[in-house]
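Saturday, quiet lab. Running sequence design on the C-alpha coordinates for the scaffold JK sent over.
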Protein backbone atom coordinates (compact mmCIF):
# COMPACT_ATOMS: atom_id res chain seq x y z
CA UNK A 1 0.00 0.00 0.00
CA UNK A 2 1.53 3.34 -1.10
CA UNK A 3 1.92 6.02 1.49
CA UNK A 4 0.56 9.46 0.49
CA UNK A 5 1.68 11.26 3.60
CA UNK A 6 1.08 14.73 2.21
CA UNK A 7 -2.60 13.94 1.69
CA UNK A 8 -2.76 12.39 5.13
CA UNK A 9 -1.22 15.50 6.59
CA UNK A 10 -3.99 17.59 5.00
CA UNK A 11 -6.70 15.35 6.49
CA UNK A 12 -5.37 14.04 9.76
CA UNK A 13 -2.24 16.06 10.54
CA UNK A 14 1.46 15.29 10.09
CA UNK A 15 2.82 11.80 10.49
CA UNK A 16 6.26 12.71 11.85
CA UNK A 17 7.16 9.15 12.58
CA UNK A 18 7.54 8.55 8.82
CA UNK A 19 10.41 11.07 8.63
CA UNK A 20 12.48 9.48 11.36
CA UNK A 21 15.66 7.70 10.46
CA UNK A 22 14.82 4.71 12.65
CA UNK A 23 13.12 1.85 10.91
CA UNK A 24 9.74 0.72 12.03
CA UNK A 25 9.56 -2.73 13.42
CA UNK A 26 8.29 -5.07 10.76
CA UNK A 27 8.32 -2.42 8.00
CA UNK A 28 10.32 -3.33 4.88
CA UNK A 29 11.60 -0.52 2.63
CA UNK A 30 13.03 -0.87 -0.81
CA UNK A 31 11.64 -3.15 -3.42
CA UNK A 32 8.83 -4.27 -1.21
CA UNK A 33 8.09 -0.75 0.05
CA UNK A 34 4.77 -0.29 1.59
CA UNK A 35 4.52 -3.80 3.00
CA UNK A 36 4.84 -4.72 6.63
CA UNK A 37 6.64 -7.97 7.57
CA UNK A 38 7.24 -9.87 10.70
CA UNK A 39 9.71 -12.70 11.37
CA UNK A 40 6.90 -15.20 10.89
CA UNK A 41 6.07 -13.70 7.50
CA UNK A 42 9.64 -14.13 6.27
CA UNK A 43 9.57 -17.73 7.36
CA UNK A 44 6.28 -18.37 5.56
CA UNK A 45 7.28 -16.66 2.30
CA UNK A 46 10.73 -18.10 2.21
CA UNK A 47 12.29 -14.74 1.70
CA UNK A 48 15.53 -13.95 3.37
CA UNK A 49 15.31 -11.40 6.09
CA UNK A 50 17.91 -8.66 5.45
CA UNK A 51 20.62 -8.14 7.93
CA UNK A 52 20.53 -5.06 10.15
CA UNK A 53 23.51 -3.58 8.32
CA UNK A 54 21.67 -3.90 5.02
CA UNK A 55 18.58 -2.20 6.41
CA UNK A 56 20.66 0.70 7.69
CA UNK A 57 22.38 1.03 4.28
CA UNK A 58 19.04 1.14 2.52
CA UNK A 59 17.81 3.92 4.78
CA UNK A 60 20.96 5.98 4.13
CA UNK A 61 20.48 5.59 0.39
CA UNK A 62 17.05 7.14 0.66
CA UNK A 63 14.87 4.07 0.55
CA UNK A 64 11.68 4.54 2.48
CA UNK A 65 11.60 8.36 2.02
CA UNK A 66 8.19 9.68 1.15
CA UNK A 67 7.68 10.84 -2.39
CA UNK A 68 6.57 14.39 -2.97
CA UNK A 69 2.84 14.58 -3.72
CA UNK A 70 1.02 17.77 -4.59
CA UNK A 71 -1.42 18.48 -1.75
CA UNK A 72 -5.07 18.94 -2.57
CA UNK A 73 -6.21 22.54 -2.78
CA UNK A 74 -8.29 23.98 0.10
CA UNK A 75 -11.29 26.04 -0.95
CA UNK A 76 -9.95 26.51 -4.47
CA UNK A 77 -6.67 28.07 -3.26
CA UNK A 78 -3.51 27.47 -5.33
CA UNK A 79 -0.90 25.28 -3.70
CA UNK A 80 1.72 27.16 -1.72
CA UNK A 81 4.89 28.24 -3.46
CA UNK A 82 7.53 25.56 -3.02
CA UNK A 83 10.43 27.70 -4.28
CA UNK A 84 11.97 27.84 -0.86
CA UNK A 85 11.31 24.17 -0.44
CA UNK A 86 13.39 23.39 -3.56
CA UNK A 87 16.28 25.40 -2.16
CA UNK A 88 16.15 23.63 1.17
CA UNK A 89 17.20 20.15 2.11
CA UNK A 90 14.56 17.51 1.72
CA UNK A 91 13.57 17.40 5.39
CA UNK A 92 13.39 21.18 5.86
CA UNK A 93 11.43 21.73 2.63
CA UNK A 94 8.80 19.25 3.72
CA UNK A 95 8.40 20.95 7.06
CA UNK A 96 8.09 24.35 5.36
CA UNK A 97 5.47 22.96 2.97
CA UNK A 98 3.55 21.62 5.93
CA UNK A 99 3.69 25.00 7.67
CA UNK A 100 2.48 26.80 4.55
CA UNK A 101 -0.50 24.51 4.30
CA UNK A 102 -1.29 25.06 7.96
CA UNK A 103 -1.17 28.84 7.52
CA UNK A 104 -3.45 28.57 4.48
CA UNK A 105 -5.91 26.52 6.52
CA UNK A 106 -5.80 29.08 9.31
CA UNK A 107 -6.36 31.98 6.91
CA UNK A 108 -9.33 30.20 5.33
CA UNK A 109 -10.74 29.37 8.74
CA UNK A 110 -10.35 32.99 9.86
CA UNK A 111 -12.01 34.22 6.67
CA UNK A 112 -14.94 31.85 7.13
CA UNK A 113 -15.22 32.86 10.78
CA UNK A 114 -15.35 36.56 9.88
CA UNK A 115 -17.96 35.83 7.24
CA UNK A 116 -20.13 33.88 9.66
CA UNK A 117 -19.72 36.57 12.32
CA UNK A 118 -20.74 39.27 9.85
CA UNK A 119 -23.78 37.28 8.77
CA UNK A 120 -24.73 36.70 12.40
CA UNK A 121 -24.38 40.39 13.26
CA UNK A 122 -26.46 41.36 10.25
CA UNK A 123 -29.09 38.76 11.15
CA UNK A 124 -29.10 40.02 14.73
CA UNK A 125 -29.60 43.60 13.57
CA UNK A 126 -32.51 42.54 11.38
CA UNK A 127 -34.04 40.67 14.33
CA UNK A 128 -33.64 43.68 16.60
CA UNK A 129 -35.26 45.97 14.05
CA UNK A 130 -38.11 43.52 13.54
CA UNK A 131 -38.65 43.18 17.28
CA UNK A 132 -38.62 46.96 17.58
CA UNK A 133 -41.30 47.29 14.92
CA UNK A 134 -43.35 44.57 16.57
CA UNK A 135 -43.06 46.32 19.92
CA UNK A 136 -44.20 49.59 18.37
CA UNK A 137 -47.14 47.86 16.73
CA UNK A 138 -48.04 46.15 20.00
CA UNK A 139 -47.75 49.41 21.94
CA UNK A 140 -49.98 51.16 19.40
CA UNK A 141 -52.45 48.30 19.55
CA UNK A 142 -52.54 48.40 23.35
CA UNK A 143 -52.96 52.16 23.25
CA UNK A 144 -55.84 51.79 20.79
CA UNK A 145 -57.42 49.12 22.95
CA UNK A 146 -57.12 51.31 26.02
CA UNK A 147 -58.56 54.28 24.15
CA UNK A 148 -61.37 52.11 22.79
CA UNK A 149 -62.16 50.80 26.28
CA UNK A 150 -62.33 54.35 27.63
CA UNK A 151 -64.50 55.42 24.71
CA UNK A 152 -66.87 52.51 25.28
CA UNK A 153 -67.08 53.32 28.97
CA UNK A 154 -68.01 56.91 28.17
CA UNK A 155 -70.63 55.80 25.67
CA UNK A 156 -72.14 53.33 28.11
CA UNK A 157 -72.26 56.10 30.71
CA UNK A 158 -74.08 58.33 28.22
CA UNK A 159 -76.71 55.65 27.55
CA UNK A 160 -77.14 55.08 31.28
CA UNK A 161 -77.62 58.82 31.71
CA UNK A 162 -80.26 58.85 28.96
CA UNK A 163 -82.24 56.15 30.76
CA UNK A 164 -81.92 58.09 33.99
CA UNK A 165 -83.18 61.30 32.43
CA UNK A 166 -86.21 59.50 31.00
CA UNK A 167 -87.57 58.74 34.48
CA UNK A 168 -86.26 61.80 36.31
CA UNK A 169 -88.89 63.11 38.71
CA UNK A 170 -87.80 66.69 39.23
CA UNK A 171 -88.49 69.48 36.79
CA UNK A 172 -85.23 71.16 35.89
CA UNK A 173 -85.15 74.37 33.83
CA UNK A 174 -81.87 73.14 32.30
CA UNK A 175 -83.28 69.77 31.26
CA UNK A 176 -82.66 70.54 27.58
CA UNK A 177 -79.00 71.32 28.35
CA UNK A 178 -78.69 68.06 30.24
CA UNK A 179 -79.99 66.16 27.24
CA UNK A 180 -77.63 68.07 24.94
CA UNK A 181 -74.70 66.66 26.92
CA UNK A 182 -75.53 63.06 26.05
CA UNK A 183 -77.34 63.18 22.70
CA UNK A 184 -76.81 64.84 19.35
CA UNK A 185 -79.02 67.80 18.38
CA UNK A 186 -80.78 65.62 15.78
CA UNK A 187 -81.02 62.65 18.12
CA UNK A 188 -83.69 60.05 17.28
CA UNK A 189 -85.47 57.84 19.81
CA UNK A 190 -87.23 54.80 18.37
CA UNK A 191 -89.97 53.15 20.43
CA UNK A 192 -92.79 50.65 19.95
CA UNK A 193 -96.36 51.91 19.74
CA UNK A 194 -97.37 53.17 23.20
CA UNK A 195 -101.15 53.76 23.19
CA UNK A 196 -101.26 53.87 26.98
CA UNK A 197 -99.59 57.30 27.01
CA UNK A 198 -99.64 60.53 25.05
CA UNK A 199 -97.50 61.07 21.98
CA UNK A 200 -97.70 63.14 18.84
CA UNK A 201 -99.62 61.38 16.09
CA UNK A 202 -97.00 62.33 13.48
CA UNK A 203 -94.40 60.32 15.39
CA UNK A 204 -96.13 57.05 14.50
CA UNK A 205 -94.41 54.89 11.89
CA UNK A 206 -95.09 51.48 10.41
CA UNK A 207 -92.89 49.80 13.04
CA UNK A 208 -93.49 52.03 16.03
CA UNK A 209 -92.63 55.61 16.92
CA UNK A 210 -89.73 57.90 16.09
CA UNK A 211 -89.09 60.90 18.32
CA UNK A 212 -86.66 63.36 16.71
CA UNK A 213 -84.83 66.23 18.32
CA UNK A 214 -84.24 67.28 21.92
CA UNK A 215 -87.50 69.29 22.30
CA UNK A 216 -89.52 66.25 21.22
CA UNK A 217 -87.50 64.05 23.59
CA UNK A 218 -88.31 66.36 26.50
CA UNK A 219 -92.00 66.21 25.58
CA UNK A 220 -91.87 62.41 25.43
CA UNK A 221 -90.29 62.31 28.87
CA UNK A 222 -93.12 64.44 30.23
CA UNK A 223 -95.63 62.00 28.73
CA UNK A 224 -93.88 59.02 30.33
CA UNK A 225 -93.82 60.81 33.68
CA UNK A 226 -97.57 61.38 33.54
CA UNK A 227 -98.11 57.70 32.69
CA UNK A 228 -95.97 56.44 35.53
CA UNK A 229 -97.38 59.04 37.90
CA UNK A 230 -100.83 57.56 37.37
CA UNK A 231 -99.54 54.19 38.42
CA UNK A 232 -97.54 55.42 41.38
CA UNK A 233 -100.43 57.26 42.94
CA UNK A 234 -102.64 54.17 42.81
CA UNK A 235 -105.70 56.26 42.19
CA UNK A 236 -108.93 55.12 43.74
CA UNK A 237 -112.45 55.41 42.56
CA UNK A 238 -114.21 58.73 42.99
CA UNK A 239 -117.36 57.13 44.40
CA UNK A 240 -119.03 58.87 47.30
CA UNK A 241 -118.57 55.85 49.54
CA UNK A 242 -114.79 56.25 49.44
CA UNK A 243 -114.58 60.04 49.18
CA UNK A 244 -114.19 60.56 52.92
CA UNK A 245 -111.24 58.19 53.28
CA UNK A 246 -107.56 58.93 52.96
CA UNK A 247 -105.62 57.57 49.99
CA UNK A 248 -103.98 54.95 52.19
CA UNK A 249 -107.42 53.81 53.28
CA UNK A 250 -108.66 53.60 49.70
CA UNK A 251 -105.71 51.45 48.70
CA UNK A 252 -103.45 49.86 51.33
CA UNK A 253 -100.63 49.66 48.78
CA UNK A 254 -100.88 53.32 47.79
CA UNK A 255 -97.60 55.12 47.15
CA UNK A 256 -99.05 58.49 48.08
CA UNK A 257 -98.65 60.07 51.47
CA UNK A 258 -101.33 62.11 53.20
CA UNK A 259 -100.15 65.35 51.58
CA UNK A 260 -100.08 63.87 48.11
CA UNK A 261 -96.31 63.45 47.84
CA UNK A 262 -95.21 60.38 45.97
CA UNK A 263 -93.22 57.92 48.06
CA UNK A 264 -92.43 55.55 45.19
CA UNK A 265 -89.03 55.14 43.63
CA UNK A 266 -88.60 54.91 39.87
CA UNK A 267 -85.42 53.75 38.22
CA UNK A 268 -84.42 52.81 34.70
CA UNK A 269 -80.99 51.18 34.65
CA UNK A 270 -78.62 49.83 32.06
CA UNK A 271 -77.55 46.26 32.77
CA UNK A 272 -73.82 46.53 32.17
CA UNK A 273 -73.26 42.82 32.55
CA UNK A 274 -74.95 42.31 29.18
CA UNK A 275 -73.13 44.98 27.17
CA UNK A 276 -72.27 44.04 23.59
CA UNK A 277 -70.46 46.13 20.99
CA UNK A 278 -70.64 45.86 17.23
CA UNK A 279 -67.85 46.65 14.80
CA UNK A 280 -69.32 50.07 14.00
CA UNK A 281 -69.27 51.09 17.68
CA UNK A 282 -72.96 50.50 18.37
CA UNK A 283 -73.97 49.47 21.86
CA UNK A 284 -76.49 46.72 22.55
CA UNK A 285 -77.58 45.92 26.08
CA UNK A 286 -80.57 44.99 28.24
CA UNK A 287 -82.29 47.59 30.40
CA UNK A 288 -84.83 47.48 33.22
CA UNK A 289 -87.55 49.91 34.29
CA UNK A 290 -88.61 49.34 37.88
CA UNK A 291 -91.07 51.07 40.20
CA UNK A 292 -91.07 50.16 43.88
CA UNK A 293 -92.95 51.51 46.85
CA UNK A 294 -91.62 52.80 50.15
CA UNK A 295 -91.26 49.23 51.38
CA UNK A 296 -89.06 48.38 48.38
CA UNK A 297 -91.83 46.20 47.01
CA UNK A 298 -91.78 46.15 43.21
CA UNK A 299 -95.00 47.44 41.68
CA UNK A 300 -93.95 47.40 38.04
CA UNK A 301 -90.95 45.97 36.27
CA UNK A 302 -90.32 45.99 32.56
CA UNK A 303 -87.23 44.66 30.84
CA UNK A 304 -86.16 45.29 27.29
CA UNK A 305 -83.26 45.65 24.92
CA UNK A 306 -81.68 48.76 23.46
CA UNK A 307 -79.34 49.64 20.64
CA UNK A 308 -77.49 52.94 20.67
CA UNK A 309 -75.43 54.33 17.81
CA UNK A 310 -72.78 57.01 17.97
CA UNK A 311 -71.07 59.14 15.41
CA UNK A 312 -67.43 58.16 14.89
CA UNK A 313 -64.61 60.63 15.23
CA UNK A 314 -63.90 62.76 12.18
CA UNK A 315 -60.79 62.19 10.06
CA UNK A 316 -59.50 65.66 10.89
CA UNK A 317 -59.69 65.05 14.61
CA UNK A 318 -58.02 61.67 14.18
CA UNK A 319 -55.16 63.14 12.17
CA UNK A 320 -54.68 66.01 14.58
CA UNK A 321 -54.65 63.66 17.53
CA UNK A 322 -52.13 61.40 15.81
CA UNK A 323 -49.85 64.38 15.21
CA UNK A 324 -50.23 65.51 18.79
CA UNK A 325 -51.95 68.74 17.79
CA UNK A 326 -54.73 70.47 19.67
CA UNK A 327 -55.01 71.38 23.30
CA UNK A 328 -56.84 69.80 26.20
CA UNK A 329 -60.06 71.67 25.41
CA UNK A 330 -60.09 70.23 21.89
CA UNK A 331 -59.56 66.74 23.29
CA UNK A 332 -62.36 67.20 25.80
CA UNK A 333 -64.69 68.47 23.08
CA UNK A 334 -63.79 65.47 20.93
CA UNK A 335 -64.55 63.09 23.79
CA UNK A 336 -67.88 64.76 24.45
CA UNK A 337 -68.74 64.47 20.77
CA UNK A 338 -67.94 60.77 20.85
CA UNK A 339 -70.05 60.30 23.99
CA UNK A 340 -73.24 61.75 22.52
CA UNK A 341 -75.68 59.24 21.11
CA UNK A 342 -77.03 59.69 17.60
CA UNK A 343 -79.91 57.19 17.87
CA UNK A 344 -81.41 55.01 20.58
CA UNK A 345 -83.82 52.18 19.87
CA UNK A 346 -85.78 50.70 22.77
CA UNK A 347 -87.62 47.42 22.38
CA UNK A 348 -89.92 45.91 24.99
CA UNK A 349 -93.26 44.14 25.37
CA UNK A 350 -95.86 46.92 25.28
CA UNK A 351 -98.73 44.52 25.99
CA UNK A 352 -97.04 43.31 29.17
CA UNK A 353 -96.36 46.89 30.22
CA UNK A 354 -99.98 47.85 29.60
CA UNK A 355 -101.19 44.88 31.65
CA UNK A 356 -98.95 45.87 34.54
CA UNK A 357 -100.35 49.39 34.38
CA UNK A 358 -103.83 47.91 34.46
CA UNK A 359 -103.09 45.80 37.53
CA UNK A 360 -101.12 48.58 39.19
CA UNK A 361 -103.74 51.33 38.94
CA UNK A 362 -106.60 49.07 40.02
CA UNK A 363 -107.63 45.66 38.70
CA UNK A 364 -111.28 46.67 38.54
CA UNK A 365 -110.60 49.70 36.34
CA UNK A 366 -109.71 49.76 32.68
CA UNK A 367 -106.57 51.66 31.79
CA UNK A 368 -107.77 53.23 28.59
CA UNK A 369 -105.64 54.46 25.70
CA UNK A 370 -104.70 58.12 25.83
CA UNK A 371 -106.19 60.24 23.01
CA UNK A 372 -103.63 61.92 20.79
CA UNK A 373 -105.92 63.54 18.22
CA UNK A 374 -108.97 65.74 18.50
CA UNK A 375 -111.28 63.12 17.03
CA UNK A 376 -110.10 60.54 19.57
CA UNK A 377 -110.66 62.96 22.44
CA UNK A 378 -114.25 63.62 21.26
CA UNK A 379 -115.20 59.95 21.46
CA UNK A 380 -117.61 58.97 24.27
CA UNK A 381 -115.85 58.21 27.54
CA UNK A 382 -116.66 57.78 31.21
CA UNK A 383 -113.62 59.92 32.07
CA UNK A 384 -114.26 63.59 32.89
CA UNK A 385 -112.77 65.32 29.83
CA UNK A 386 -112.44 68.97 28.92
CA UNK A 387 -110.97 70.27 25.65
CA UNK A 388 -109.45 73.74 25.58
CA UNK A 389 -107.53 75.87 23.12
CA UNK A 390 -103.85 75.12 22.64
CA UNK A 391 -102.57 78.41 24.07
CA UNK A 392 -103.28 80.69 26.98
CA UNK A 393 -105.75 81.39 28.47
CA UNK A 394 -106.87 77.85 27.48
CA UNK A 395 -110.52 78.63 26.76
CA UNK A 396 -112.95 75.75 27.23
CA UNK A 397 -114.26 74.48 23.87
CA UNK A 398 -115.82 71.13 24.81
CA UNK A 399 -116.80 69.14 27.90
CA UNK A 400 -118.36 65.69 28.14
CA UNK A 401 -121.08 64.35 30.41
CA UNK A 402 -118.65 62.91 33.00
CA UNK A 403 -117.02 66.33 33.40
CA UNK A 404 -120.42 68.01 33.79
CA UNK A 405 -121.39 65.48 36.46
CA UNK A 406 -118.16 66.01 38.38
CA UNK A 407 -117.98 69.80 38.18
CA UNK A 408 -121.70 70.66 38.06
CA UNK A 409 -121.47 73.06 35.09
CA UNK A 410 -123.59 72.58 31.99
CA UNK A 411 -121.85 73.03 28.63
CA UNK A 412 -123.65 76.31 28.04
CA UNK A 413 -122.36 77.62 31.38
CA UNK A 414 -118.66 76.83 30.83
CA UNK A 415 -118.00 77.12 27.08
CA UNK A 416 -115.91 80.19 26.31
CA UNK A 417 -114.62 80.38 29.88
CA UNK A 418 -111.41 79.08 31.44
CA UNK A 419 -110.78 76.45 34.03
CA UNK A 420 -110.42 79.19 36.59
CA UNK A 421 -114.11 78.57 37.33
CA UNK A 422 -112.98 75.46 39.24
CA UNK A 423 -110.44 77.27 41.39
CA UNK A 424 -111.02 78.40 44.95
CA UNK A 425 -109.30 79.54 48.13
CA UNK A 426 -107.23 76.38 48.57
CA UNK A 427 -106.17 76.01 44.96
CA UNK A 428 -102.36 76.16 44.77
CA UNK A 429 -101.54 78.87 42.25
CA UNK A 430 -97.95 77.67 41.87
CA UNK A 431 -99.25 74.34 40.69
CA UNK A 432 -101.66 76.04 38.31
CA UNK A 433 -98.84 78.11 36.85
CA UNK A 434 -96.70 75.01 36.40
CA UNK A 435 -99.53 73.27 34.52
CA UNK A 436 -100.05 76.32 32.31
CA UNK A 437 -96.33 76.55 31.57
CA UNK A 438 -96.11 72.91 30.52
CA UNK A 439 -99.29 73.16 28.47
CA UNK A 440 -97.96 76.27 26.70
CA UNK A 441 -94.96 74.19 25.54
CA UNK A 442 -97.25 71.42 24.33
CA UNK A 443 -96.08 69.00 27.02
CA UNK A 444 -98.15 66.45 28.85
CA UNK A 445 -98.36 67.19 32.55
CA UNK A 446 -100.21 66.20 35.69
CA UNK A 447 -100.84 67.57 39.15
CA UNK A 448 -103.01 67.17 42.21
CA UNK A 449 -105.21 70.26 42.71
CA UNK A 450 -107.87 71.40 45.10
CA UNK A 451 -110.82 72.37 42.87
CA UNK A 452 -114.41 73.39 43.53
CA UNK A 453 -117.61 72.43 41.73
CA UNK A 454 -120.49 74.74 40.89
CA UNK A 455 -121.96 74.42 44.38
CA UNK A 456 -118.58 75.35 45.95
CA UNK A 457 -117.82 71.85 47.25
CA UNK A 458 -114.10 71.12 47.23
CA UNK A 459 -112.72 67.99 45.65
CA UNK A 460 -109.12 66.89 45.13
CA UNK A 461 -108.59 66.61 41.44
CA UNK A 462 -105.79 64.61 39.86
CA UNK A 463 -105.53 66.47 36.58
CA UNK A 464 -103.78 65.08 33.52
CA UNK A 465 -103.22 67.31 30.50
CA UNK A 466 -102.34 66.00 27.02
CA UNK A 467 -101.67 67.82 23.73
CA UNK A 468 -103.88 67.07 20.75
CA UNK A 469 -103.34 67.43 17.00
CA UNK A 470 -105.75 67.30 14.10
CA UNK A 471 -106.27 64.08 12.15
CA UNK A 472 -105.04 65.68 8.92
CA UNK A 473 -101.44 64.76 9.78
CA UNK A 474 -100.51 68.21 11.00
CA UNK A 475 -97.57 68.46 13.38
CA UNK A 476 -98.97 71.53 15.08
CA UNK A 477 -100.80 71.16 18.39
CA UNK A 478 -104.40 72.29 17.92
CA UNK A 479 -105.96 71.68 21.36
CA UNK A 480 -105.24 70.56 24.91
CA UNK A 481 -107.13 67.75 26.63
CA UNK A 482 -107.71 67.75 30.39
CA UNK A 483 -108.74 64.55 32.20
CA UNK A 484 -110.06 65.10 35.72
CA UNK A 485 -110.36 62.50 38.44
CA UNK A 486 -111.66 62.90 41.96
CA UNK A 487 -109.26 61.18 44.34
CA UNK A 488 -110.36 62.66 47.67
CA UNK A 489 -113.84 63.90 48.46
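Result came back. Writing it out in full:
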Amino acid sequence: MAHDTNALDCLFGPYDFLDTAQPIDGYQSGGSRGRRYSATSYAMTGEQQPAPQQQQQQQQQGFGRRESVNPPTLGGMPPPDNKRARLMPAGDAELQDKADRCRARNREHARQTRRRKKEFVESLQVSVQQLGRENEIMAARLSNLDERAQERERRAASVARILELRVKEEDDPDVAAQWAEVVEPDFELKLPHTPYRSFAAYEATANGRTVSGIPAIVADVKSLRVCLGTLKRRLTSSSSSSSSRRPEENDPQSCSSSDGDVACETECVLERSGLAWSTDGSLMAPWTLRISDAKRQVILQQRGMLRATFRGRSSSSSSSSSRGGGDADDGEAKHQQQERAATLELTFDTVSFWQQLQRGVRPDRVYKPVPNTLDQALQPSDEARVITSASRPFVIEHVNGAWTKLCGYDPDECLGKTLAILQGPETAQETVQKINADASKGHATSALLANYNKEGAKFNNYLRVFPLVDDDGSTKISHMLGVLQNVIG
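Notes for JK: The first strand starts at residue 27 and ends at 28. The chain has a mean pLDDT of 77. Ask whether to fix the surface positions before the next round.
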